[in-house]
Design goal:
Blueprint: H1 3-18, H2 29-42, E1 47-51, E2 57-63, E3 71-77, E4 97-98, E5 101-103, H3 111-126, E6 135-140, H4 151-157, E7 165-170, E8 175-176, E9 185-192, E10 194-203, E11 207-208, H5 217-230, H6 239-249, H7 263-266, H8 270-278, H9 280-286, E12 289-296, E13 303-304, E14 307-316, H10 322-333, E15 338-342, H11 357-369, E16 374-380, H12 386-391, E17 395-398, E18 403-404, H13 406-409, E19 418-420, H14 421-439
Bound molecules: zinc ion.
């Protein structure tokens, strides 16, 4: 492989892809599929595009193997979140290359991963390398608004696109290299927390605001919410979470990760527990969380309403049972006049084990990308399309051969999102070598 030439091609394709405005809403992902199809066509790779709605394109292309092993899906979402130009110093859709960085909305989330997958596929096709498994490039719409027109649509309407697949690779997972840390820390995403939409509805007789009493609907609701927020649902340390924190402890400056290697026991210590749970991210990794985000009572200040509601964003960890959570909430609320309901079908969390052939290959790839890296399995607290692929029976992982510090990472969904040329050129080599290791005959 001519890695230099492939690296330059990657940078140019990245710039071109960033110029395609796929802000969602409305998405306009078909413009993205046209771009991808044209590049694939240039190397004689046929692709198929299907729209889930006007201009909401999804695309698939397949390099065939001999079928002796299951296929590998290389997935990215075409859409990006909006960029407020007033806060950017460059055009978010200009594809600018400046001082070793390519700027644009989607530079990290996640057109860069899509371009690495695309170029790796082109390189393997050009080199005429025989494959043991199919490589399936999948580009989808609508991830940023819930995937209904993208991965979810593909899962129900174009299931054959993923026929014969065993694995899926999608977004996130990264190598974080920070000053003060002993080693770089790499993560491979194996699971996501998923949402359970809860609604509490308190009811009582209505009345005039001038003569309130303790049990009006809003008053009951407030007391019920207070009981819920004060109730401590016991932390639960999944084995994968234990591994994540034990590995993290080995890269943190001395002293900072104390107790992380035996988390369950450490959480029994009140001092440790308070410190650990004060970190929102850490707390969300060991607990089912409840965020009271929408409240509704009367339409008028002087009217005591017959009903008051609270909508709660509850997030579940792998192994959580929605029915058990609902009955736990009912028990804590402990008021027959406050109803607890689930307002949309729960998405049961799923998880891919960190011991498959692909996971091991990903871990080795991160080791080549950043020598000395400590790699850990990660559970995302947010949601990604990998949940859908796991639901289709694939092992789905989030993988990115990018070395970033926290400052770069924060540009995701933020201002002046960018990716370094080094991450693109070293990343495409890393991705191509990974695919060769997994799929070359
Ligand atoms: Zn994304």
């Amino acid at each position: 492989m001519d890695w230099g030439a492939l690296g330059s091609e990657t940078v140019e394709l990245m710039r071109a892809y960033l110029k395609v405005d796929t802000t969602n809403p409305p998405g306009n992902e078909t413009a993205g599929t046209r771009f991808l199809a044209q590049v694939l066509d240039g190397d004689g790779i046929a692709s198929e595009t299907a729209e889930s709605a006007p201009e909401r394109g999804n695309l698939v292309a397949r390099l065939r193997g001999d079928g002796s092993l299951g296929g590998l899906v290389l997935h990215h979402h075409i859409d990006v979140v909006y960029a407020d130009k007033r806060y950017w110093t460059v055009d978010p859709f200009g594809g600018l290359l400046r001082d070793g960085f390519v700027y644009g909305r989607g530079a990290l989330d996640m057109k860069s991963t899509g371009i690495l997958q695309l170029v790796a596929m082109l390189a393997i096709k050009r080199a005429k390398i025989p494959l043991k498994r199919d490589l399936i490039l999948l580009a989808t719409a609508d991830e940023e608004v819930g995937s209904r027109f993208g991965a979810q649509w593909v899962a129900t309407e174009r299931r054959q696109w993923l026929a014969g697949a065993e694995y899926a690779l999608s977004e996130l997972g990264v190598i974080v290299a920070e000053g003060g840390r002993r080693r770089p820390f790499g993560t491979i995403v194996i699971s996501e927390k998923t949402g359970l939409s809860l609604r509490l509805t308190a009811r009582s007789e209505p009345g005039h605001g001038s003569m309130p009493w303790p049990d009006t609907a809003p008053h009951r609701l407030i007391r019920a919410l207070t009981r819920l927020l004060e109730a401590e649902r016991p932390p639960r340390v999944l084995p994968e979470i234990q591994e994540f924190f034990a590995r993290m402890a080995s890269v943190l400056p001395a002293g900072q990760g104390e107790g992380f290697d035996r988390l369950e026991r450490s959480l029994g210590d009140p001092g440790f527990r308070a410190r650990f749970l004060a970190n929102r991210h850490h707390a969300a990794l060991v607990r089912t969380t409840f965020a009271v985000n929408m409240l509704k009572g009367s339409e008028k200040r002087n009217v005591i309403p017959p009903e008051a509601t609270a909508d709660i964003d509850c997030r579940m960890l792998a192994g959580d049972d929605p029915d058990e959570i609902v009955s736990w909430v009912r028990g804590v609320v402990a008021d027959p006049n406050v109803e607890v309901n689930v307002t949309s079908p729960p998405k049961a969390p799923n998880l891919s084990p960190p011991d498959t052939e692909l996971y091991k290959a990903l871990s080795e790839a991160l080791g080549r990308r950043a020598p000395g890296v400590i790699v850990a399995p990660e559970i995302m607290v947010g949601f990604t399309d990998n949940w859908i692929f796991r639901g289709m029976g694939l092992h789905g992982y989030g993988f990115g051969p990018f070395v970033l510090d926290e400052g770069e990472w924060r540009r995701i969904h933020g201002n002046d999102e960018r990716i370094s040329v080094e991450n693109l050129t070293a990343g495409v080599r890393c991705y191509t070598e990974l695919l060769l290791q997994m799929a070359a005959a």
